[in-house]
Write a structure and sequence with these properties.
The complex is a heterodimer of chains A (326) and B (306). With 326 residues, chain A is an alpha+beta fold. Chain A contains eight helices and 14 strands. Classes of the chains: A alpha+beta (326), B alpha+beta (306).
Chain lengths: 326, 306
């Protein structure tokens, strides 16, 4: 304590569990509050970093960071290729740092986390799978004919062993509707609209409505990672032509610097020929859990509100000017 | 013949690439004359007759610093065929692949704005349109009407479930998607439904990909008073999405039908292009309908005056 800043050094249950599990793996090397896993030139790292932010109601205490840097396997992709690659990212967002390709995720951990066990497993899975899946996605992107082989080698389940209960989406729709948001549920997912500006609440009724379209689905399998939870945020206007890759990088980097933020398990990426800026995440699993879809949708809503507050200019779209003013 | 005045580099590149693709069909893009203010006319001697190709700067871009260019393909059909086809366009265009039959004009027409993104793919598709749009439509209908449509399948579709899974994932954010066996469907919010299916029974091509964009008339002002012939005419004149296929009416809906044969599968970003163009087409349909209505109104005023 220096009189103004308070450093919270609460060790969460999650950190204890995760570090305890990783300590059992002989191929991992211990770090201060973390572990590193070196495989040839590839290296994965999981660390817990303290935060200087006020803990708030939920008791924010630490941020878990999971990062994999891929060894040299040829030319490093440029910003446009990275932005495109990020549309299929799992366990974080792809980035290039000092000529090296990597992928990183981070997760703010709260003392009162109601799903502590799920979070611990999520972190362990990210640490364990970032390299193989991450590289499989990269390889399949740049050598498309390798997709069937990568998919077969990774062996992610392609059918649900415990399928999601469709009534979950009914309950979620009711919940979001009661919060004043337009939602459409299907048997396997939920589409939600979050107003970015203006008073038109839905693009379904009026194509000019300025709303972000949020999805959570359980019937959108990942080309490599099999079945699981897919989520996305689509905004109504694309950034100016040619600027989407820069926006993807900027938003992914800015999210990373946020001290108290929703989990960063996906990425802002570029989709379609028109350079659409879309956030997406995919959580591979073949066992549905009751609250996961709702939790993921809440993350998407929070992220959309953050985008609206910091970067959105009504009638125009994302703007750096708005970003700097904010 | 004098060299034509140069067009912007991306347009020249596009023309050259189209020429290269045409040579795959043993066809040659022959320059005929220059058009004012900025355009050119070419002719291709296809196996089933000449095809006229016009490259021109669009009217709406004439006063803009950077020009926008469109390429149009005009393949005249046998007048007897068009006489039979008159008033049956909805039926005959069901087999459209790379162009729309306009019976009143005696032609199968195609067009595309010359793009700066994935231009080689558009050039490749344009070459197929030049070589095959008319021939495929005429031959398919001949097969259908002679009852030979159900001949044995010789070639399965080159598109597989893996392709559709990729599409389903990459475009899941657009609306409500549905991944099926050998196909994918996307309901764009308030703007129609795109259905893409791997098929093996196209009467002309055999295996390939059938793409149908269905847009309900309900919700588009005056849509009930517009025919598919008018839509195809206006799509060819001012469409932002390429006329590689044709509009037809199906009860309460307009449907744009296009078919991609197996051999175009390798073209770069082809599927992205199909989805993007379908969205553009769905969004611009109300504009095409209103252009068709305005033209019809002007025509009737002209008729009354004369």
């Amino acid at each position: 304590v220096d009189g103004r800043k308070v450093k919270w050094i609460v060790i969460s249950q999650i950190e204890e569990w995760v570090l305890g599990e990783l300590a059992k793996q002989p191929e991992l090397q211990a770090l201060d509050r973390g572990f590193v896993w070196q495989r040839g030139e590839d290296v994965s790292r999981l660390t817990f970093e303290p935060t200087t932010v006020e803990p708030g109601d939920f008791g924010l205490c630490v941020t878990a960071r999971i990062e994999t840097l891929f060894g040299d396997r040829g030319p490093v992709p440029g910003p446009e290729a990275i932005a495109k690659l990020n549309r299929r990212a799992c366990y974080g967002a792809y980035f290039v740092q000092e000529g090296q390709l990597g992928i990183r995720a981070s997760y703010c951990i709260y003392d009162k986390e109601p799903a502590a066990h799920w979070v611990a497993i999520a972190l362990l899975r990210a640490m364990g799978e970032q390299l193989a899946l991450g590289f499989g996605i990269v390889h399949s992107e740049f050598v498309p004919e390798s997709l069937p082989a990568n998919r077969s080698n990774l062996e992610y389940p392609r059918t649900w062993s415990e399928p999601p209960d469709p009534s979950i989406f009914e309950r979620m729709a009711a919940d979001f509707t009661s919060r004043g948001l337009i939602s459409t549920r299907g048997r396997h997912g939920l589409v939600l609209e979050v107003p970015l500006s203006g008073d038109k609440p839905s693009r379904m009724f009026d194509p000019t409505a300025e709303t972000a379209l949020l999805h959570v689905s359980t019937d959108v399998p990942h080309p490599l990672a099999g079945v699981g939870y897919f989520a996305s945020i689509a905004i109504p206007f694309d950034p100016p032509p040619g600027t989407t890759p820069a926006w993807c990088q900027y938003l992914n980097d800015t999210e990373r610097t946020m001290r108290d933020f929703v989990p960063r398990l996906g990425a802002w990426g570029m989709r379609s020929l028109d350079g659409e800026l879309v956030y997406s995440m995919f959580w591979p699993t073949n066992r549905a859990e009751g609250a996961v879809a709702g939790t993921i949708m809440n993350w998407m809503v929070q992220r959309t509100l953050w985008l609206r507050e910091r970067f959105w200019v009504p009638g125009q779209g994302v703007s750096m000017r708005q970003a700097t003013n904010g | 013949m004098a060299e034509p005045a140069p067009l912007p580099k991306h347009v020249e590149d596009f023309i050259a690439t189209t020429g290269r693709f045409l040579s795959q069909f043993k066809l040659n893009l022959e320059f005929k004359d220059e058009l004012k203010p900025e355009g050119r006319r070419y002719v291709v001697e296809a196996q089933d007759g000449p095809v006229e190709i016009i490259v021109h700067r669009t009217q709406r871009s004439l006063d803009r610093p950077v020009g926008e260019y469109r390429v149009r393909v005009w393949a005249n059909t046998d007048s007897e065929f068009c006489r039979i086809a008159a008033d049956k366009e909805d039926m005959l265009n069901r087999t459209a692949t790379f162009g729309a039959l306009l019976a009143a004009e005696n032609a199968v027409v195609s067009q595309a704005l010359i793009p700066t993104v994935a231009a080689d793919t558009t050039a490749g598709l344009l070459a197929v349109a030049i070589a095959h749009a008319r021939r495929s439509l005429v031959a398919s209908n001949a097969k259908v009407f002679s009852g030979r449509e159900g001949e044995p399948v010789e070639q399965m579709s080159a598109w597989t479930d893996l392709d559709f899974e990729g599409l389903h994932y990459d475009y899941a954010h657009l609306g409500i998607g549905d991944l099926g066996r050998w196909g994918w469907r996307m309901e764009f919010l308030a703007a129609g439904t795109l259905t893409i299916n791997a098929v093996h029974n196209n009467p002309y091509w055999g295996g390939g990909l059938l793409c149908l964009l269905r847009v309900p008339k309900k919700g588009i002002n005056g849509a009930d008073r517009v025919s598919s012939r008018q839509l195809n005419t206006w799509d060819h004149l001012v469409g932002d999405a390429p006329t590689f296929g044709a509009w037809l009416t199906d009860d309460d809906d307009f449907v744009f039908v296009r078919f991609l044969p197996n051999f175009v599968k390798g073209l770069d970003s082809l599927m992205d292009m199909v989805v993007s163009q379908s969205m553009v087409r769905a969004r611009e349909l109300p504009m095409l309908v209103s252009a068709a209505l305005e033209a019809a109104a002007l025509e009737s005023v002209g008729d009354a005056a004369s």
